[in-house]
UniProtKB/TrEMBL annotation:
Residues 235-387 form the O-methyltransferase C-terminal domain. Gene3D superfamilies: Vaccinia Virus protein VP39 (3.40.50.150), Winged helix-like DNA-binding domain superfamily/Winged helix DNA-binding domain (1.10.10.10). InterPro entries: COMT-like, COMT_C, COMT_dimerisation, SAM-dependent_MTases_sf, WH-like_DNA-bd_sf, WH_DNA-bd_sf. GO terms for molecular function: O-methyltransferase activity; protein dimerization activity. One of its GO terms (biological process) is secondary metabolite biosynthetic process. It holds the Pfam family Methyltransf_2. Residues 57-121 form the O-methyltransferase dimerisation domain. PANTHER family: O-METHYLTRANSFERASE (AFU_ORTHOLOGUE AFUA_2G17820)-RELATED, PUTATIVE (AFU_ORTHOLOGUE AFUA_4G14580)-RELATED. PROSITE patterns: SAM_OMT_II. This is Uncharacterized protein. Coiled coil: none annotated. Keywords: Methyltransferase, S-adenosyl-L-methionine, Transferase.
Length: 415
Protein backbone atom coordinates (compact mmCIF):
# COMPACT_ATOMS: atom_id res chain seq x y z
CA UNK A 1 0.00 0.00 0.00
CA UNK A 2 1.37 3.45 -0.92
CA UNK A 3 2.52 5.47 2.06
CA UNK A 4 0.32 8.43 2.91
CA UNK A 5 1.69 11.85 1.93
CA UNK A 6 1.77 13.07 5.53
CA UNK A 7 3.25 16.57 4.91
CA UNK A 8 0.86 17.10 1.97
CA UNK A 9 -2.20 16.07 3.98
CA UNK A 10 -1.20 18.21 6.95
CA UNK A 11 -0.67 21.23 4.72
CA UNK A 12 -4.03 20.76 2.93
CA UNK A 13 -5.89 20.44 6.23
CA UNK A 14 -4.11 23.43 7.77
CA UNK A 15 -4.90 25.56 4.73
CA UNK A 16 -8.55 24.56 4.78
CA UNK A 17 -8.82 25.23 8.51
CA UNK A 18 -7.28 28.69 8.23
CA UNK A 19 -9.49 29.75 5.33
CA UNK A 20 -11.89 32.38 6.67
CA UNK A 21 -14.45 31.48 4.01
CA UNK A 22 -14.57 27.72 4.55
CA UNK A 23 -18.33 27.76 5.22
CA UNK A 24 -19.23 30.57 2.83
CA UNK A 25 -21.74 29.63 0.15
CA UNK A 26 -22.26 26.08 1.39
CA UNK A 27 -25.74 24.65 1.65
CA UNK A 28 -26.73 23.10 5.00
CA UNK A 29 -26.26 19.62 3.48
CA UNK A 30 -22.81 20.50 2.13
CA UNK A 31 -21.83 21.97 5.49
CA UNK A 32 -23.07 18.80 7.27
CA UNK A 33 -21.21 16.54 4.81
CA UNK A 34 -18.01 18.47 5.42
CA UNK A 35 -18.55 18.35 9.18
CA UNK A 36 -19.11 14.60 9.09
CA UNK A 37 -16.01 14.05 6.96
CA UNK A 38 -13.95 16.06 9.50
CA UNK A 39 -15.46 14.05 12.37
CA UNK A 40 -14.59 10.79 10.59
CA UNK A 41 -11.04 11.99 10.02
CA UNK A 42 -10.71 12.96 13.70
CA UNK A 43 -12.01 9.55 14.75
CA UNK A 44 -9.38 7.89 12.53
CA UNK A 45 -6.47 9.72 14.09
CA UNK A 46 -7.45 10.22 17.73
CA UNK A 47 -6.51 7.79 20.48
CA UNK A 48 -8.89 6.69 23.23
CA UNK A 49 -7.06 9.16 25.53
CA UNK A 50 -7.62 12.02 23.05
CA UNK A 51 -11.31 11.13 22.87
CA UNK A 52 -11.64 10.99 26.64
CA UNK A 53 -10.00 14.35 27.17
CA UNK A 54 -11.99 15.96 24.35
CA UNK A 55 -15.33 14.79 25.74
CA UNK A 56 -14.64 15.04 29.46
CA UNK A 57 -15.82 18.61 29.87
CA UNK A 58 -18.72 18.44 27.41
CA UNK A 59 -21.26 18.44 30.25
CA UNK A 60 -20.29 22.01 31.21
CA UNK A 61 -21.73 23.64 28.09
CA UNK A 62 -25.38 22.55 28.54
CA UNK A 63 -25.29 23.50 32.22
CA UNK A 64 -23.94 27.00 31.53
CA UNK A 65 -26.40 27.41 28.68
CA UNK A 66 -29.20 26.47 31.06
CA UNK A 67 -27.92 29.07 33.52
CA UNK A 68 -27.88 31.68 30.76
CA UNK A 69 -31.45 30.71 29.79
CA UNK A 70 -32.66 30.87 33.40
CA UNK A 71 -31.02 34.25 33.96
CA UNK A 72 -32.79 35.54 30.84
CA UNK A 73 -29.74 36.30 28.70
CA UNK A 74 -31.18 34.70 25.55
CA UNK A 75 -34.57 36.31 26.13
CA UNK A 76 -32.85 39.71 26.32
CA UNK A 77 -30.99 39.14 23.06
CA UNK A 78 -34.14 37.85 21.36
CA UNK A 79 -36.57 40.52 22.55
CA UNK A 80 -37.05 41.60 18.98
CA UNK A 81 -35.72 40.61 15.58
CA UNK A 82 -33.17 43.41 15.28
CA UNK A 83 -29.53 42.59 15.86
CA UNK A 84 -29.03 43.21 19.55
CA UNK A 85 -25.83 44.17 21.30
CA UNK A 86 -25.19 45.00 24.95
CA UNK A 87 -22.32 45.76 27.29
CA UNK A 88 -21.85 43.20 30.03
CA UNK A 89 -22.98 45.85 32.55
CA UNK A 90 -26.22 46.40 30.59
CA UNK A 91 -26.91 42.65 30.53
CA UNK A 92 -26.28 42.53 34.28
CA UNK A 93 -28.64 45.43 34.95
CA UNK A 94 -31.40 44.22 32.65
CA UNK A 95 -31.29 40.67 34.03
CA UNK A 96 -30.69 41.84 37.63
CA UNK A 97 -27.63 39.59 37.92
CA UNK A 98 -24.12 40.00 39.31
CA UNK A 99 -21.97 41.65 36.64
CA UNK A 100 -18.97 39.37 37.26
CA UNK A 101 -21.15 36.29 36.82
CA UNK A 102 -22.51 37.67 33.54
CA UNK A 103 -18.97 38.48 32.39
CA UNK A 104 -17.82 34.91 33.06
CA UNK A 105 -20.86 33.34 31.39
CA UNK A 106 -20.49 35.53 28.30
CA UNK A 107 -16.74 34.89 28.09
CA UNK A 108 -17.44 31.15 28.16
CA UNK A 109 -20.27 31.19 25.58
CA UNK A 110 -18.29 33.45 23.23
CA UNK A 111 -15.62 30.72 23.01
CA UNK A 112 -18.34 28.52 21.46
CA UNK A 113 -19.32 31.26 18.96
CA UNK A 114 -22.73 31.55 20.60
CA UNK A 115 -22.36 35.34 20.74
CA UNK A 116 -20.09 37.70 18.81
CA UNK A 117 -18.01 40.52 20.27
CA UNK A 118 -17.89 43.96 18.64
CA UNK A 119 -14.55 45.82 18.32
CA UNK A 120 -15.75 47.94 21.26
CA UNK A 121 -16.10 44.82 23.40
CA UNK A 122 -19.90 44.66 23.38
CA UNK A 123 -21.69 41.30 23.24
CA UNK A 124 -23.64 40.94 20.02
CA UNK A 125 -26.28 38.42 18.96
CA UNK A 126 -25.25 36.21 16.04
CA UNK A 127 -27.22 33.60 14.08
CA UNK A 128 -26.79 31.05 16.86
CA UNK A 129 -28.09 33.49 19.51
CA UNK A 130 -31.07 34.38 17.36
CA UNK A 131 -31.98 30.77 16.64
CA UNK A 132 -31.61 29.51 20.20
CA UNK A 133 -35.19 29.44 21.44
CA UNK A 134 -37.82 27.01 22.63
CA UNK A 135 -39.10 24.74 19.89
CA UNK A 136 -35.67 24.15 18.36
CA UNK A 137 -33.89 20.86 18.94
CA UNK A 138 -30.76 22.45 20.42
CA UNK A 139 -32.59 24.58 23.00
CA UNK A 140 -34.93 21.82 24.15
CA UNK A 141 -32.07 19.33 24.35
CA UNK A 142 -30.22 21.71 26.67
CA UNK A 143 -33.28 21.97 28.93
CA UNK A 144 -33.63 18.18 29.04
CA UNK A 145 -29.94 17.48 29.55
CA UNK A 146 -29.46 20.04 32.29
CA UNK A 147 -32.77 19.47 34.08
CA UNK A 148 -33.27 15.76 33.70
CA UNK A 149 -30.33 13.74 32.39
CA UNK A 150 -27.13 15.26 33.80
CA UNK A 151 -28.26 15.18 37.45
CA UNK A 152 -28.89 11.45 36.99
CA UNK A 153 -25.49 10.71 35.47
CA UNK A 154 -23.67 12.79 38.09
CA UNK A 155 -25.31 10.59 40.73
CA UNK A 156 -24.47 7.31 38.96
CA UNK A 157 -21.25 6.24 40.77
CA UNK A 158 -22.73 7.02 44.21
CA UNK A 159 -25.93 5.15 43.34
CA UNK A 160 -24.06 1.98 42.37
CA UNK A 161 -21.87 2.21 45.47
CA UNK A 162 -24.97 2.50 47.61
CA UNK A 163 -26.77 -0.41 45.96
CA UNK A 164 -23.74 -2.73 45.73
CA UNK A 165 -23.79 -2.47 41.91
CA UNK A 166 -27.37 -3.62 41.57
CA UNK A 167 -28.81 -2.97 38.13
CA UNK A 168 -31.78 -0.57 38.30
CA UNK A 169 -34.82 -2.50 37.08
CA UNK A 170 -37.68 -0.78 38.86
CA UNK A 171 -39.43 2.07 37.00
CA UNK A 172 -40.35 3.71 40.32
CA UNK A 173 -37.11 3.13 42.24
CA UNK A 174 -33.92 3.56 40.26
CA UNK A 175 -31.14 6.00 39.60
CA UNK A 176 -33.52 8.64 38.29
CA UNK A 177 -35.59 8.62 41.49
CA UNK A 178 -32.44 8.63 43.62
CA UNK A 179 -30.99 11.64 41.79
CA UNK A 180 -34.23 13.63 41.65
CA UNK A 181 -35.41 12.62 45.12
CA UNK A 182 -38.77 11.36 43.90
CA UNK A 183 -40.72 8.12 43.85
CA UNK A 184 -42.41 8.92 40.54
CA UNK A 185 -41.64 7.19 37.24
CA UNK A 186 -40.13 9.59 34.68
CA UNK A 187 -43.33 10.40 32.77
CA UNK A 188 -45.24 11.22 35.98
CA UNK A 189 -42.32 13.32 37.24
CA UNK A 190 -42.32 15.22 33.93
CA UNK A 191 -45.90 16.31 34.62
CA UNK A 192 -44.63 18.34 37.57
CA UNK A 193 -41.74 19.96 35.71
CA UNK A 194 -43.12 22.25 33.04
CA UNK A 195 -39.80 23.28 31.45
CA UNK A 196 -38.54 19.70 31.11
CA UNK A 197 -41.96 18.33 30.14
CA UNK A 198 -42.38 20.84 27.32
CA UNK A 199 -38.79 20.28 26.20
CA UNK A 200 -39.30 16.51 26.16
CA UNK A 201 -42.38 16.75 23.96
CA UNK A 202 -40.72 19.31 21.71
CA UNK A 203 -37.72 17.01 21.26
CA UNK A 204 -40.03 14.06 20.50
CA UNK A 205 -42.03 16.08 17.99
CA UNK A 206 -38.91 17.50 16.35
CA UNK A 207 -36.77 14.37 16.17
CA UNK A 208 -36.11 13.63 12.57
CA UNK A 209 -35.39 9.97 12.94
CA UNK A 210 -38.95 8.91 12.33
CA UNK A 211 -39.97 11.42 9.74
CA UNK A 212 -40.18 9.19 6.76
CA UNK A 213 -37.50 6.71 7.54
CA UNK A 214 -39.61 3.99 9.08
CA UNK A 215 -42.05 3.90 6.25
CA UNK A 216 -39.79 4.74 3.36
CA UNK A 217 -36.67 2.77 4.13
CA UNK A 218 -37.71 -0.13 6.29
CA UNK A 219 -40.98 -1.54 5.09
CA UNK A 220 -41.76 -1.51 1.39
CA UNK A 221 -44.96 0.14 0.28
CA UNK A 222 -46.26 -3.20 -0.98
CA UNK A 223 -46.00 -4.66 2.49
CA UNK A 224 -48.65 -2.19 3.66
CA UNK A 225 -50.82 -2.59 0.59
CA UNK A 226 -50.81 -6.40 0.98
CA UNK A 227 -51.50 -6.05 4.67
CA UNK A 228 -54.52 -3.82 4.18
CA UNK A 229 -55.84 -5.86 1.25
CA UNK A 230 -55.87 -9.00 3.42
CA UNK A 231 -57.43 -7.45 6.52
CA UNK A 232 -61.08 -6.87 7.27
CA UNK A 233 -60.70 -4.47 10.18
CA UNK A 234 -62.24 -1.02 10.14
CA UNK A 235 -59.23 0.28 12.09
CA UNK A 236 -56.08 0.51 10.02
CA UNK A 237 -53.53 1.61 12.57
CA UNK A 238 -53.32 2.34 16.30
CA UNK A 239 -50.21 4.29 17.31
CA UNK A 240 -49.78 3.39 21.00
CA UNK A 241 -47.83 6.00 23.01
CA UNK A 242 -47.79 8.00 19.78
CA UNK A 243 -47.07 11.44 21.27
CA UNK A 244 -47.56 14.11 18.60
CA UNK A 245 -48.72 11.69 15.92
CA UNK A 246 -45.45 11.81 14.03
CA UNK A 247 -45.53 8.17 13.02
CA UNK A 248 -49.09 8.41 11.76
CA UNK A 249 -48.23 11.51 9.86
CA UNK A 250 -45.25 9.87 8.19
CA UNK A 251 -47.47 6.90 7.41
CA UNK A 252 -50.00 9.13 5.66
CA UNK A 253 -47.27 10.86 3.69
CA UNK A 254 -46.02 7.56 2.46
CA UNK A 255 -49.38 5.96 1.85
CA UNK A 256 -52.21 8.42 1.39
CA UNK A 257 -55.14 6.22 2.38
CA UNK A 258 -58.27 8.34 2.63
CA UNK A 259 -60.35 5.41 3.93
CA UNK A 260 -57.94 4.52 6.70
CA UNK A 261 -59.08 4.87 10.30
CA UNK A 262 -56.04 5.95 12.26
CA UNK A 263 -55.95 6.21 16.05
CA UNK A 264 -53.40 8.12 18.06
CA UNK A 265 -53.14 7.04 21.71
CA UNK A 266 -51.14 8.57 24.53
CA UNK A 267 -51.77 9.54 28.13
CA UNK A 268 -54.74 11.94 28.39
CA UNK A 269 -52.57 14.98 29.26
CA UNK A 270 -50.59 14.53 26.08
CA UNK A 271 -53.57 13.74 23.89
CA UNK A 272 -55.54 16.72 25.10
CA UNK A 273 -52.54 18.78 24.05
CA UNK A 274 -52.82 20.94 27.11
CA UNK A 275 -49.16 21.88 26.95
CA UNK A 276 -49.13 25.42 25.76
CA UNK A 277 -46.78 26.17 22.88
CA UNK A 278 -45.89 22.53 22.35
CA UNK A 279 -46.97 21.17 18.97
CA UNK A 280 -48.49 18.12 20.56
CA UNK A 281 -51.12 16.19 18.71
CA UNK A 282 -51.23 18.83 16.03
CA UNK A 283 -50.61 15.99 13.63
CA UNK A 284 -49.92 18.52 10.94
CA UNK A 285 -51.86 18.57 7.70
CA UNK A 286 -53.52 15.20 8.30
CA UNK A 287 -55.05 16.13 11.63
CA UNK A 288 -58.61 15.49 10.53
CA UNK A 289 -57.88 11.88 9.59
CA UNK A 290 -56.37 11.02 12.95
CA UNK A 291 -58.60 10.14 15.89
CA UNK A 292 -57.08 11.04 19.24
CA UNK A 293 -57.68 8.78 22.20
CA UNK A 294 -56.45 9.29 25.77
CA UNK A 295 -55.33 5.84 26.89
CA UNK A 296 -52.67 4.46 29.22
CA UNK A 297 -50.94 1.42 27.78
CA UNK A 298 -50.97 -0.09 31.26
CA UNK A 299 -54.75 -0.50 30.88
CA UNK A 300 -56.46 -3.03 28.57
CA UNK A 301 -56.27 -1.92 24.93
CA UNK A 302 -59.75 -0.66 23.96
CA UNK A 303 -59.31 -1.00 20.18
CA UNK A 304 -59.65 -4.63 19.15
CA UNK A 305 -58.64 -6.32 15.92
CA UNK A 306 -56.87 -3.37 14.24
CA UNK A 307 -54.75 -4.21 11.20
CA UNK A 308 -51.69 -2.61 12.72
CA UNK A 309 -50.59 -1.60 16.20
CA UNK A 310 -47.43 0.48 16.46
CA UNK A 311 -45.17 0.88 19.50
CA UNK A 312 -42.51 3.33 18.43
CA UNK A 313 -39.71 4.16 20.88
CA UNK A 314 -41.94 3.07 23.75
CA UNK A 315 -40.75 -0.33 24.94
CA UNK A 316 -37.16 0.81 25.53
CA UNK A 317 -38.43 3.27 28.16
CA UNK A 318 -39.65 0.43 30.39
CA UNK A 319 -38.05 -2.43 32.32
CA UNK A 320 -39.21 -5.96 31.48
CA UNK A 321 -42.00 -5.99 34.08
CA UNK A 322 -43.80 -2.99 32.55
CA UNK A 323 -42.82 -3.90 28.96
CA UNK A 324 -44.60 -7.23 29.43
CA UNK A 325 -47.80 -5.53 30.66
CA UNK A 326 -47.80 -3.18 27.65
CA UNK A 327 -47.28 -6.11 25.26
CA UNK A 328 -49.87 -8.29 27.00
CA UNK A 329 -52.59 -5.66 26.57
CA UNK A 330 -51.86 -5.33 22.88
CA UNK A 331 -51.69 -9.10 22.42
CA UNK A 332 -55.12 -9.43 24.00
CA UNK A 333 -56.57 -6.89 21.55
CA UNK A 334 -54.98 -8.41 18.40
CA UNK A 335 -56.67 -10.96 16.19
CA UNK A 336 -55.02 -13.38 13.77
CA UNK A 337 -54.85 -10.72 11.04
CA UNK A 338 -53.36 -8.03 13.29
CA UNK A 339 -49.68 -7.11 13.19
CA UNK A 340 -47.74 -5.25 15.85
CA UNK A 341 -44.81 -3.14 14.66
CA UNK A 342 -42.26 -2.36 17.35
CA UNK A 343 -39.83 0.39 16.34
CA UNK A 344 -36.94 0.49 18.75
CA UNK A 345 -33.23 0.20 18.97
CA UNK A 346 -32.53 -3.52 18.57
CA UNK A 347 -28.98 -4.56 19.32
CA UNK A 348 -26.99 -7.36 17.88
CA UNK A 349 -26.41 -10.06 20.50
CA UNK A 350 -22.68 -9.81 19.65
CA UNK A 351 -20.42 -7.58 21.75
CA UNK A 352 -18.52 -5.00 19.69
CA UNK A 353 -21.17 -4.72 16.99
CA UNK A 354 -23.02 -1.79 18.52
CA UNK A 355 -22.30 1.81 17.45
CA UNK A 356 -21.50 4.53 19.98
CA UNK A 357 -24.85 6.32 19.65
CA UNK A 358 -26.83 3.16 20.39
CA UNK A 359 -24.63 2.16 23.33
CA UNK A 360 -25.09 5.71 24.68
CA UNK A 361 -28.85 5.40 24.28
CA UNK A 362 -28.69 2.18 26.33
CA UNK A 363 -26.87 4.03 29.14
CA UNK A 364 -29.55 6.74 29.10
CA UNK A 365 -32.25 4.06 29.31
CA UNK A 366 -30.51 2.46 32.30
CA UNK A 367 -29.92 5.72 34.17
CA UNK A 368 -33.15 7.55 33.43
CA UNK A 369 -35.74 4.81 32.94
CA UNK A 370 -34.24 1.78 34.78
CA UNK A 371 -34.67 0.11 31.40
CA UNK A 372 -32.51 -0.89 28.46
CA UNK A 373 -32.04 -1.17 24.73
CA UNK A 374 -32.74 -4.82 24.04
CA UNK A 375 -31.15 -7.34 21.75
CA UNK A 376 -33.10 -9.34 19.20
CA UNK A 377 -32.90 -12.40 21.46
CA UNK A 378 -34.22 -10.45 24.43
CA UNK A 379 -37.16 -9.13 22.40
CA UNK A 380 -37.91 -12.60 21.09
CA UNK A 381 -38.19 -14.09 24.58
CA UNK A 382 -40.28 -11.15 25.91
CA UNK A 383 -42.68 -11.53 23.01
CA UNK A 384 -42.92 -15.29 23.35
CA UNK A 385 -43.76 -15.06 27.02
CA UNK A 386 -46.92 -13.08 26.24
CA UNK A 387 -48.09 -15.19 23.30
CA UNK A 388 -46.54 -13.10 20.53
CA UNK A 389 -44.16 -14.18 17.81
CA UNK A 390 -41.40 -12.22 16.08
CA UNK A 391 -42.03 -12.81 12.42
CA UNK A 392 -39.48 -10.54 10.74
CA UNK A 393 -36.81 -8.01 11.62
CA UNK A 394 -36.62 -4.98 9.33
CA UNK A 395 -33.41 -3.00 9.48
CA UNK A 396 -32.30 0.04 7.57
CA UNK A 397 -28.70 -0.64 6.55
CA UNK A 398 -28.02 3.11 6.58
CA UNK A 399 -29.32 3.60 10.10
CA UNK A 400 -27.25 1.22 12.25
CA UNK A 401 -29.35 -0.43 14.90
CA UNK A 402 -30.87 2.76 16.25
CA UNK A 403 -34.23 2.08 14.76
CA UNK A 404 -35.22 -1.40 13.85
CA UNK A 405 -38.75 -2.51 13.09
CA UNK A 406 -39.94 -5.79 14.54
CA UNK A 407 -42.91 -7.35 12.79
CA UNK A 408 -44.87 -9.27 15.39
CA UNK A 409 -47.99 -11.43 15.21
CA UNK A 410 -50.05 -13.39 17.67
CA UNK A 411 -48.76 -16.91 18.26
CA UNK A 412 -51.10 -19.38 16.61
CA UNK A 413 -53.15 -21.33 19.16
CA UNK A 414 -52.66 -25.09 18.98
CA UNK A 415 -55.89 -26.78 17.93
C1 LIG B 1 -40.23 8.22 23.82
S1 LIG B 1 -41.86 8.79 23.51
C2 LIG B 1 -42.17 8.10 21.90
C3 LIG B 1 -43.25 8.84 21.16
C4 LIG B 1 -43.58 8.36 19.75
N1 LIG B 1 -44.11 7.02 19.74
C5 LIG B 1 -42.37 8.49 18.84
O1 LIG B 1 -41.82 7.48 18.41
O2 LIG B 1 -41.99 9.63 18.55
C6 LIG B 1 -42.82 7.79 24.59
C7 LIG B 1 -44.28 8.19 24.66
O3 LIG B 1 -44.94 7.31 25.58
C8 LIG B 1 -45.94 8.08 26.21
N2 LIG B 1 -46.38 7.42 27.45
C9 LIG B 1 -45.73 7.37 28.64
N3 LIG B 1 -46.46 6.68 29.54
C10 LIG B 1 -47.58 6.28 28.89
C11 LIG B 1 -48.71 5.51 29.26
N4 LIG B 1 -48.83 5.02 30.50
N5 LIG B 1 -49.66 5.27 28.33
C12 LIG B 1 -49.56 5.77 27.07
N6 LIG B 1 -48.51 6.51 26.65
C13 LIG B 1 -47.53 6.76 27.55
C14 LIG B 1 -45.27 9.42 26.45
O4 LIG B 1 -46.22 10.44 26.73
C15 LIG B 1 -44.54 9.61 25.15
O5 LIG B 1 -45.33 10.29 24.22
Amino acid sequence: MAKMDYPGLLSTLSQAASSPSIQTGLTRTEQQNLYQACAKLSACVETPQDRLLKGSFDFILPTILRLAIDIGIFTLFNEDDSVQEFDVSEIATRTKTDQVLIYRIMRFLITFDMFDVTPEGRCKANTFTKSFRSGTGAYDTVILLSGLTLPVFSRLPAYFQKTGNTLPENAKMGLFQDAHDTDLPVYDWLNHRKAERDAFHQVMAASESLNDSVWAHYLPQNWFLDKFASGSSDVTLVDVGGNSGKVLNAFLHRLPTPQARLILQDIPDVIQGEYKDVPLCRTHENASQIEKMGHSFFDPQPVHGASLYVLSRVIHNWPDKEALIILQHIQAAMNDQSTLLICDCVFSDQLGKVPYTDATSDMIMMAVFSSLERSEGHFRSLLESVGLELQKVWRDPLNGTLLTVLEVVRKKQLA
